[in-house]
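Troubleshooting entry. The earlier prediction with iron/sulfur cluster gave an output that would not parse, so I re-checked the input for stray whitespace and re-submitted. Clean input:
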Amino acid sequence: GTVADRLAGNRYETDEEESHIHLDQDLARTTGCARRLVAICPAKVYAEEADGTISVEYAACFECGACAAVAEPGVLTWRYPRGGMGISLREG
Ligand code: SF4
């Protein structure tokens, strides 16, 4: 395929591997956390989609910790990239 196709494919695989934030959609809604997360993240990692779910653009996260501070227990599950260098090595 084209270079763009290959980059898109690589990006998808990379994201699947390196996702480090898991959001419990149901819990986020029932606890009212969803809007708080969207509002507080300075990197705009969280966004409310048309269907009401919250998308998580974790690649933009710079690990400031704000979301973890406002989320109710169980809403967010963090899995830090191995070695703690996920972001800086993402393009490597
Ligand atoms: Fe956003 Fe900070 Fe949470 Fe990352 S740690 S998702 S930058 S609020």
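This one parsed fine. The beta strands are 21-23, 46-48, 54-56, 76-78.
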